[in-house]
TrEMBL record:
Gene3D superfamilies named in the record: Rhodopsin 7-helix transmembrane proteins
Pfam family, one: 7TM_GPCR_Srbc
Record bears the keyword Membrane: yes
InterPro entries: 7TM_GPCR_serpentine_rcpt_Srbc
Cited SUPFAM superfamilies: Family A G protein-coupled receptor-like
Superkingdom assignment: Eukaryota
Protein name per UniProt: G-protein coupled receptors family 1 profile domain-containing protein
Keyword hit for Lyase: no
Record organism: Steinernema hermaphroditum
């Protein structure tokens, strides 16, 4: 139960940190020229949606199944919950955003004159995309394969893999925020203005 509270707090924290970043990307006049930040904002929005779904799931579990409760419920009652539908759409959106970023990078690489992006900019964005794909592979895709197909008889560790998928949004937040100088400057400017 304490681990659920910790991961619920992490999921809520990710959502609360991502929301101002999304607002800065959308509203800041200094970032209007940075087209790639629109996709980063989309990825942050998807991560926020996934984090909120995780937080709501944990709150619902804690309220529906108290620690001392020995009540048994059938599997269908667990499966047909509203947050399962949210997980379904959130995971689809993660894939769609990855596809959109891949298409955008494809255009940048194969049609550079139309895209007008310098080599150093491409290198940094490709590094960001590579780190994002690596975190998706290690923290989302491989654990899902292990859970669904019981590779190496590791299905018993499903809670560990669930926690790894929650941690993915934290990793992505740091990748996106610390990669872009413009975004980093705007976030720091807004934070310093508030203090």
């Amino acid at each position: 139960m304490s681990s659920e509270l910790i991961y619920g707090a992490i999921a809520t924290g990710v959502a609360l940190i991502n929301i101002p970043v999304i607002a800065i990307i959308i509203t800041s006049p200094a970032l209007k020229n940075c087209k790639e930040l629109l996709l980063v904002g989309g990825i942050c929005a998807v991560d926020t949606f996934l984090a909120l779904a995780n937080a709501v799931c944990i709150v619902d579990r804690l309220l529906s199944f108290p620690a001392d409760s020995g009540d048994k419920i059938i599997q269908m009652d667990c499966f047909f919950r509203y947050y399962v539908v949210a997980f379904f759409y959130a995971n689809l959106l993660v894939g769609i955003m990855t596809l959109l970023v891949s298409i955008e990078r494809f255009i940048a690489v194969f049609f550079p004159l139309q895209y007008l992006v310098s080599y150093t900019r491409n290198k940094g964005v490709l590094m960001m995309l590579g780190l994002t794909c690596l975190s998706d592979l290690c923290l989302l895709f491989i654990p899902d394969l292990i859970i669904n197909f019981n590779f190496f008889e590791l299905q018993a560790y499903h809670m560990l893999f669930y926690h790894a998928s929650l941690f993915k949004t934290v990793v992505n937040l740091f990748i996106y925020t610390f990669r872009h100088n413009e975004l980093r400057k705007q976030v720091l400017a807004k934070l310093l203005k508030c203090c």
